[in-house]
TrEMBL record:
This is 3-oxoacyl-(Acyl-carrier-protein) reductase acetoacetyl-CoA reductase. Keywords: Oxidoreductase. Its EC number is 1.1.1.100, 1.1.1.36. Transmembrane segments: none annotated. One of its GO terms (molecular function) is 3-oxoacyl-[acyl-carrier-protein] reductase (NADPH) activity. GO terms for cellular component: cytoplasm. It comes from the Bacteria. Gene3D superfamilies: NAD(P)-binding Rossmann-like Domain. PANTHER family: 3-OXOACYL-(ACYL-CARRIER-PROTEIN) REDUCTASE (PTHR42879), 3-OXOACYL-[ACYL-CARRIER-PROTEIN] REDUCTASE FABG (PTHR42879:SF2). Belongs to the short-chain dehydrogenases/reductases (SDR) family. It comes from Thiothrix nivea (strain ATCC 35100 / DSM 5205 / JP2). GO terms for biological process: monocarboxylic acid metabolic process; poly-hydroxybutyrate biosynthetic process. Residues 3-180 form the Ketoreductase domain.
Length: 242
């Protein structure tokens, strides 16, 4: 029986590449969407692989309870979670508002708890599970204009390190992937002059690709990665070496 992989934020750049890679790996792939249903259905129809989509505001615990009920009704269980849903509300600290702060903390950090909490105990009971949390280079080094995002993404890896210890003996691994600047809509939304200055700081000399991130996630989800847990994999073209 194929494993069931849940990827949050699969309609985004990195999430979509992960879903596609997982389908190629032979998993049943399910993802969440937050955009209007029509838009999400149109996205689903455009994909050249099989993916089932569920509406879910990952920043809401109640929505994640409903997600669990729906996915388990359709697929029985979840074996792999990739917490990928995320947003930016960039502003200098002088200009940041409580709403900017709260939106990013709720979507990028609370969501990791809300989603993982639904499934991890059953993974432990069955003796196999994989949780891969998508953080960011900016959670590792901090980024001008991103006190909210950097704090949330650093928090993601704190969660990874703690939960990894709790479930290690049960065949469940918890890891973080920290992508650098990847060619997605999120990065293309940065003003061009600012973006070009950032690209100039990447030793590899280019943005990363979503497919490069998906290949790492695919490995972390595999049986061969059973000895890797609590790790933070940096994939940033050499922009932050530590
Ligand atoms: N370090 C030091 N000073 C900086 C700086 C930096 N990195 N960037 C800008 N400044 C300076 C500017 O030179 C400017 O100085 P002066 O006032 O003396 O001219 C001042 O700070 C204000 O900067 P801006 O004009 O840029 O301010 P703004 O309010 O127009 O824009 C901002 C602020 C929206 C945060 C903008 O700087 C920005 O978009 N920065 C990039 C943030 C970024 O990297 N976001 C990542 C998004 S993608 C993502 O998050 C995915 C991922 O995981 C990697």
């Amino acid at each position: 029986m194929s494993k069931v992989a849940l990827v949050t934020g699969g309609t985004g750049g990195i999430g979509n590449a992960i879903c596609k890679q997982f389908a190629a790996d032979g998993y049943k792939v399910v993802t969440t969407y937050f955009e209007p249903e029509e838009q999400a259905k149109a996205w689903q129809e455009k994909q050249d692989y099989e993916v089932t989509i569920y509406p879910c505001d990952v920043s809401s615990y109640d929505d994640c309870v409903k997600l669990k009920e729906a996915v388990e009704a359709d697929f029985g269980q979840v074996d792999i979670i990739v917490n990928c849903a995320g947003i930016t509300r960039d502003a200098t600290f002088k200009k940041i508002t409580p709403a900017h702060w709260a939106a990013v903390m709720k979507t990028n950090l609370d969501s990791i708890f809300n989603v993982t909490h639904q499934f991890v105990n059953q993974m432990a009971d069955r003796g196999f599970g994989r949780v891969i949390n998508i953080s960011s280079i900016n959670g590792q080094k901090g980024q001008f204009g991103q006190t909210n995002y950097s704090a949330a993404k650093a928090g993601v890896h704190g969660f990874t390190m703690a939960l990894a210890q709790e479930v290690a003996r049960k065949g469940v691994t918890i890891n973080t992937l920290s992508p650098g600047y990847i060619a997605t809509e999120m990065v293309m939304a940065i003003a061009e002059d600012v973006r070009n200055k950032i690209i100039a700081q990447i030793p590899v000399g280019r943005l990363g690709t979503p497919e490069e991130m998906a290949a790492i996630v695919s490995f972390l989800a595999s049986d061969n990665a059973g000895f890797i847990t609590g790790a933070n994999i940096s994939a940033n073209g050499g922009q932050f070496i530590h």
